[in-house]
Amino acid sequence: MPALYAVRTYGCQMNVHDTEKVANLLHHAGFRPATDESEADLLLINTCSIREKAENRLYSDLGALREWKAAVPGRVLGVGGCVAQQEGDRVLRRFSHLDFVFGTHNLRLVPDMVEAAGLGERQTMTDEHRSLDRFDLPERHEAFAGTTPGRAFLTVMEGCDMFCTFCIVPRTRGREISRPAAGILGEARALAERGVREVTLLGQTVNAYGRHDLKRGRDAEAGTMAFGALLGELAATPGIERIRYTSPHPLFFDDALIQAHAAIPEVCPHVHLPLQSGSDRVLAAMRRRYTAAEYLAIVERLKRARPDIAITTDVIVGFPGETRADFEDTLAVMEAVEFADSYSFKYSPRPETAAAEMGGQIDPVEAQDRLATLQDLQRGLKLAGNRRCVGTETTILVEGQSARSAGADSAQQLRGRDPYHRVVNFTLPGELPAPAAGTLLELRIVEATPHSLIGERTEDRPGVKDPLRLVDGTTPASRESELPVS
Ligand code: SAH
Ligand code: SF4
Ligand code: F3S
Description:
Layout: E1 4-9, H1 13-28, E2 32-33, E3 42-47, H2 52-71, E4 76-81, H3 82-87, H4 89-94, E5 100-102, H5 110-118, E6 123-125, E7 151-155, E8 157-158, H6 169-173, E9 177-178, H7 181-193, E10 198-202, H8 211-215, H9 219-222, H10 227-235, E11 242-246, H11 255-263, E12 270-272, H12 280-286, H13 292-305, E13 310-317, H14 324-337, E14 341-346, H15 364-389, E15 393-401, E16 412-417, E17 423-428, E18 440-448, E19 453-457, H16 476-479
Parallel strand pairs: 1-2, 1-3, 3-4, 4-5, 5-6, 7-10, 10-11, 12-13, 13-14, 17-19
Antiparallel strand pairs: 8-9, 15-16, 15-18, 16-17, 18-19
Helix pairs in contact: 10-11, 14-15
């Protein structure tokens, strides 16, 4: 029987994708996924350190896992991700039942580290490698399907050279490096051949792709190009019908990228555009390198290129020195943009970042109050946006059973996302075969709720016999075994 692995993943999409990369490497090394941690021989924790709470999660997990490790001799426990990169050997020294620590640039070493652990060796590998080797990973093993049927993450760049004053990421992900386009396009083709319809391009500042090479005039030599051009090349990949990217930085929205949203149908009408603050004073202290007016100008250009575009964002409240007036500036920008959704956070001081040393740290109760006010405003904006969709038709990529389907009778509660990245729930009569996750399906929006939309199947179009109107023409029966529960 092959050895079984399990992974706990915290943090952003880069971490989710790193977990996929490690899982694929483990498949190539003969491991298979455990259905449950209790039967795993190997347990990995892929950590996040973006806020203090995320980092502390690792320490409480590790404390609780002493029992897991002791229960079966030979079990192996490893820690990777951003806390691993930040803390390195300190984690290994603090937790004697931990076998190894691997950094964000050392994913390829994991199978070897597991083997060494089997021989009793404890080690930390967190060297930062500036080479492109990190992108040369084996193709997906045939037994490894990825975690999101029909969709896939695709790394285009890694690292961050921006050094926003609040942020730990430049320390945990290292310097910015862009992957040669040939590798990106080759991976997109291989994914499409395995049924992937939607790719999400990943990078800490994804639209900074190629910028250092272009600036030095060595893009041809490096095999990179401007981000807008990369979108065009990817859209030409047969089978790829949707392209998303995250997270872009407002500083790198050139005309080619804006125009890609107007001219390339595969590029989704959704941009996640982190704002962080609507106050110029706070933005400057954060070292974000744009003003609120410049941010709004990008939104304007995007809306001109694609009037129906959905914009989502990240916001931090309670940054050191943020006054009530600064906070109100943030609310004003949120109202002006009418964000479809936002992720908002209380500022959390991070080790060795410039903001952690700043005066004027905000009282936690006040920060909590600002967060609640902001989230209230966002709830209203989201519901209003959702209501405007009612009556429209949209195409969703089926993700699986909807959260509300627990205990459902014969009707099937399913969920998917439309091009605007909105969650759409819909019900199918029990007698119809379930459309597989990864299938594109046309729906009409019939109801708006605070968190999602409710869709119904559209009427039969002339000449279309398929009762589910699958846009890709695949019959549901041939794909039904792929339906995951998510
Ligand atoms: N590269 C992305 C951000 C990635 S981190 C960008 O430049 O926008 C995801 C989000 O976490 C950030 O957008 C920010 O809103 C939040 N964040 C980062 N550091 C934080 C901190 N120290 N405290 C609170 N929120 C933070
Ligand atoms: Fe962090 Fe700023 Fe880099 Fe985003 S751009 S990862 S917020 S340093
Ligand atoms: Fe967290 Fe690292 Fe992502 S700190 S948000 S997992 S880049």
